[in-house]
TrEMBL record:
This is 50S ribosomal protein L9. Keywords: Coiled coil, Ribonucleoprotein, Ribosomal protein, RNA-binding, rRNA-binding. GO terms for molecular function: rRNA binding; structural constituent of ribosome. PANTHER family: 50S RIBOSOMAL PROTEIN L9. It comes from Listeria seeligeri FSL N1-067.
Length: 122
């Protein structure tokens, strides 16, 4: 007898097992399509928004501190009710100046939204 089948690591490729597998795959494909559609809808919503943040700044619009992806994520949730993991934001360096910054946000492996972040003077 086959070692894998005997120890429950594999199933014999019978008609019943194959139809179960195909049903499972259909379900996974449907879920993946729904996730993609949700990500696209969220992208559309996010690209119409501007996240407003306030910070103290010195001369020339340089900030005394910096704005991090964590602060952007918190502001996005607080003002717009959209919860995004800060690790999905592609912000290689914290924002250190006043004004608008475009921040790419990876919502899905196929969908990246561009979030407009505006840092105003406190």
């Amino acid at each position: 007898e086959n070692f894998l089948i005997k120890n429950g690591y594999a199933v014999e490729a019978s008609n019943a097992a194959l139809s179960t597998l195909s049903a499972q795959k259909k379900k996974e494909d449907k879920l993946a399509a729904e996730e993609l559609a949700e990500a696209k809808a969220l992208k559309e919503k996010m690209e119409k928004l501007t996240v407003e943040l306030k910070a103290k700044s010195g001369e020339g619009g340089r900030l005394f501190g910096s704005i991090t992806s964590k602060q952007i994520a918190q502001a996005l949730e607080k003002t717009h009710g959209i919860k995004i993991d800060k690790r999905k934001m592609d912000l290689p360096e914290a924002i250190r100046a006043l004004g608008h910054t475009k921040v790419p946000v990876k919502l899905h492996h196929e969908v990246t939204a561009t979030l407009d972040v505006h840092v105003g003077e406190e």
